[in-house]
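anyone else get weird line breaks when pasting these?? whatever heres mine. first is seq + tokens for prot A
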Amino acid sequence: MKILDFFFDAYDSLRHLIFRNSSASGATERGFLARVIPILLLGLILYTLVLGFLWNSEPDNFDPVQHAARLAGERGEDMLTGYITTATLIHTAEILLDKRGGYLSNDMMPPGLFMDNIPNWEFGVLTQIRDLNLSLRNDFTRSQSQSIEDKDIINAENLFRIDSESWMLPPAETEYRSGIKALYRYLARISDKDMQDGQFYARADNLREWLGFVSKRLGSLSQRLSASVGQARLNTDLAGDAQAHQSSPTDHVIEVKTPWLKIDDVFYEARGSAWALSHLLKAAETDFQDILNKKNAIVSLQQIIRELEATQETVWSPVILNGGGFGVFANHSLVMANYISRANAAVLDLQQLLAKG
């Protein structure tokens, strides 16, 4: 490893300097090694712990509208329909890569190699970025099912699909930065009134399709968080359709439990997903304001955002506890599941409002 190589190179240089003009015996040199090597190892451990502590922090929130306005001013662009949502998507991806410590999910060196909370937070953010990119490709940039997909959005959507843990050939960060560049090109086109080959269609059906992705993600996270204490769940996979079939039979009662070592992983994935989603929905609130006002659905969207923001409260415990639902110790996963479930219920309500004429 590079850090160890650095220390050993420094040691070799120091050893040659000390023993260059000395006739000290081998025993003396071994005594020197016995004193220096533990100090170097202790220094390496302390360096790794301190750096890991500094990197183990989540980024602050930002105001999507203010950021979009600042970006438009810097680039000399007009904030037309879809600008705020796209600019927020870009900034969310930039924060993923440029936050303190950078992108850690594919680190092969300490301390990133030994960290799991922030990498799981990153995966939650990345999931929301991927889902919105897919909605841009399938819905927001297309006027109808027969229309052509946007070239830059195709590029961005493919680039963000690279394995989050890929560290070479290609490195994930390199691909994601290329995806950000493609989104910037799309942003430039939708902000130019004279260019008609780049569009963002703020329609109720498009928003409803994206919220469908959101609901599925939140539902899965809620189920995994709730399974932290284990539960016997009745099999409802085929409920509602007497003629439905599945590829292989399953038990009537299923025991669902998140492995103990994965509890904090799911918690921080949900926390990252909620952080990204709250900002993206704030941006959509402005871009889809006319639609939401017509459906009298502004308050419904704001309630979703409020529930998601509640998941970002400071975690004062040094570890994610897994106490019973009514036990002596807290269960952070169940608390998170409560907010995620409430947000998901509000998303389903909003989808129904958007479906009405």
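and prot B, same format (seq, then tokens)
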Amino acid sequence: MIAWPTPLIDELARRRAIIFLGSGVSKNSMGIGGKRPPLWKEFLELGVIRCADKKRAREISKLIKESDLLTACELLHDALGNEWENLILEEFVNPQYPPSEIHQHIFSLDSRLVITQNFDKIYDTYASAASQGTVVVKSYDEGDVSNFIRKRQRLVIKAHGSIDAPNDMVFTKGDYARARHKFAAFYALLDGLMLTHTCLFLGCGINDPDIQVLLERNVQLHPTSNPHYIAMGARYSDEFRRAVKKTMNLELLQYNPKDNHSELRSSLETLVELVDQKKQDLVNTRDW
């Protein structure tokens, strides 16, 4: 079980925390035929199978094995052509993924800001339904995202776009470069949010390009700021954890990933209870 840090519980209770969602959260959903949304690497491997150019397929597979997923994704996009969009629809839309228990726990944390890197709409749809349509969902490429940051409504930000607009999704190496240039104001907004809020990363990897850039830049500009947190289903040495803390100001919250990350789900259920208790304490003490 994750031992949730007291400062994180306090930030969540005061609604001064942002929850970052990665593909590991969507992986908890099971659609038609028992299918689950693929992780980034899994999606690329599925694409390689469809690649008619076997020489190109071998090159992409080599890049995947070397963990150069951005370049692999760029080459695969070009190799598949029109089949690229069909693959996206088949993997992220057609199975009709329902929300899972983990989505319910995340919503129950009552964070005003949730930033998701997922193209699917699993959490977005659940949050809208659970809130009677009061949750606002905005994409990185919408010019009025900043207008909603200071409003009282709960906000879900699609940092990489949505399956509703496949051509605008941030997926390949070129997509990342274009997004950072064309939508520089959005990335500046993220920089500001990283400074003013505590971030809890769920279902994300520390090798994600966006997360790395955001955290590494933030720690260089503001080396004394409070740490952010990431739940990781793996065990790392103390030396590795110290290195991540030094270079990214990120605390690793480790758990056992067996049984489809059931320990993370139960840990989040506990976190909801701890945050609710802290909220009640704030009501009683009026220590807003």
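btw re prot B: Strands lie at 17-21, 113-116, 136-139, 155-158, 198-202, 228-232, 250-254. The mean pLDDT is 93.
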